[in-house]
Design goal:
The structure is a homodimer of 320-residue chains. Chain A has 320 residues and is an alpha+beta fold. Chain A has helices spanning 5-12, 61-78, 97-114, 162-171, 178-188, 194-200, 214-225, 240-245, 248-257, 273-282, and strands spanning 23-25, 32-34, 42-50, 82-92, 117-125, 130-138, 152-157, 206-210, 228-231, 263-269, 287-294, 298-302, 308-311. In chain A, helix 3 links the parallel strand 4 (82-92) and strand 5 (117-125). The termini of chain A are far apart.
């Protein structure tokens, strides 16, 4: 079954996502045309996933489609943005209709949930399966990385370390049992914290999404804000499944350094903590204080007895 | 020399392009932030170039950077859009500083010429060199593919077939002499017709850029407009270098079917031809009538004596 790229686009990528009043012209012309709401700012991001680098080569097509949008939505969440449109660039070794149908299905599921429209794209042939998604969203009150202030608390949504252990389990072929299923599901279907970010946008001073590991990403936030952050490892929120599946020390290391969680790390004034946690609870997301923002630079780990260790780690490095 | 992706972005991709009053936050946060001018529509496009598929594996880095933006600008031109911002996704087998510097230089040259700012991106490791550029531009009077009407003339900017022969010469190692240089230059540095498109936006009924070959792209325009187009091969504008470098028949075939020219194919009322050509001349671009728009569907070739042949060809197909 040989379809041209035009037929592939027509069959799998036309009408993906929701209808939107700000989309004038979607897939099918030289470009898409949109009419941004007047006076609103747009947050723009793009992220690439490469098979064997960002997801296992044997990951189900549906999860690749879902995750290629999820990682981008996580960036929009970190800016407290409201998702609007996406464009897709897909490079494929071959056009397998079954794979494409499931890939498009995973992408469409999340696009619909997020209220986004797929407005354009490009499909080409290439040796390595590579997916680039570009997203735009309205951001009226952006949560930048550079707003953290000494005196803020440091908070994390959800739980950490699940996706990193999920990846190990997937790679080791251990896919049975409810804990393994939960952890692998966290790897394949991250939950971008769009709603939480919007609910906290007027309380928080800064935010970053945790894609490369907490220590690395908290380090970026500290650097951009010209402050130091302390992290108390014993406070890190761990899922019951992770606690049951790994020794305590390994679980903590995964929570500190594992990538792919796509939780939100926020800096907000301690006196707004109660309000922030109440709002998070209302949308069903746990918000945990894991440390503080202080004068200085870098990331410090603080033990339950108050001992401090400066930690130098910069997350997953593609080229080192 | 091992640099992390953050250091690579900092060193090569920060501050690329021109300053713009509608860019609030550029490279360095979770997303870029832009403030679109109120009441203006945005044209959005993205295109991927894969080494060995869209450009020769031995193409100079500068030309890869230049062309990855040029092919996207050509899409903006086809919508008569005014370039604004771009985002870059780069997948690399390794981070070679020399390659990156020249790649970024080529990209920056064209971004500056077009008045665009690079506002965000993603660099990751992957086996195949893959470049995806996403562009946005203001499009107040879009030239869609679906507006061609019977009675229009069909026009092409510049000359056709140069890039296709340039590719053959490059691949064959024939890079000496002024004609070969010209043809290879046409391959490596296409000239997106941004200015021409804006000058003709109020005269033309439809436009498409010629990336897959004239017959294929004129076919897309005909299909989307629910009309037929006739093309008179003897009218096709050929460069002196192409005429000197290929027999007449081969030159015509290259002009009809060769890709990568990134010229603009326009449909406009015959009675506006003189005005359109005068405006084109003012900008220093040749605008040639190559056929007509008529009732029907598909593309017909018309000989000097008026004989017609229906032509079925749909350009470069990635998956057939």
């Amino acid at each position: 079954m040989a379809l041209s790229e035009f037929e592939l686009i027509e069959r799998y990528f036309t009408g993906v996502g929701t209808g939107r009043d700000d989309v004038i012209l979607s897939v099918g012309d030289d470009t898409a045309l949109v009419a941004p709401h007047a006076g609103r700012h747009l947050a723009l991001s793009l992220d690439t996933l490469v098979a064997g680098v960002h997801f296992p080569v044997d990951a189900p097509a549906e999860t690749v489609g879902y995750k290629s949008l999820a990682v981008n939505l996580s960036d929009l969440a970190a800016m407290a943005a409201e998702p609007a449109w996406l464009l897709l660039a897909l490079t494929l070794p071959q056009a397998d209709p079954d794979w494409l149908e499931h890939f498009a299905g995973g992408l469409a599921t999340l696009a619909n949930e997020a209220g986004m429209a797929l407005v354009g794209g490009d499909i080409s042939r290439g040796q390595a399966l590579t997916v680039t998604v570009q997203v735009a969203g309205y951001s009226d009150r952006p949560l930048r990385r550079d707003g953290a202030r000494p005196g803020d608390g440091l908070y994390i949504s959800g739980t950490l370390g699940d996706a990193a252990l999920g990846l190990k389990l997937w790679q080791g072929g251990q896919r049975e049992g409810s804990d393994a299923c939960f952890l692998i599901e966290r790897l394949h279907h991250p939950n971008p914290r769009i709603t939480l970010a919007q609910a906290l946008a007027d309380l928080a001073n800064a935010a970053i999404d945790v894609s490369d590991g907490l220590l690395a990403d908290a380090g970026h936030l500290a650097n951009r804000s010209a402050v130091a952050v302390t992290i108390e490892p014993h406070r890190l929120p761990l899922s019951p499944a992770l606690r049951r599946s790994a020794p305590a020390t390994q679980a903590t290391i995964l929570a500190l350094t594992g990538g792919d969680d796509y939780e939100l790390c926020l800096s907000l004034p301690l006196e707004r903590e109660r309000e922030a946690q109440a709002r998070a609870e209302e949308i069903g997301v746990k918000l945990t204080r894991i440390g503080r923002v202080v004068e200085g630079n870098g990331v410090q780990l603080v033990s339950p007895t108050g001992e401090k260790t400066a930690y130098e780690y910069s997350g997953y490095k593609h080229f080192c």
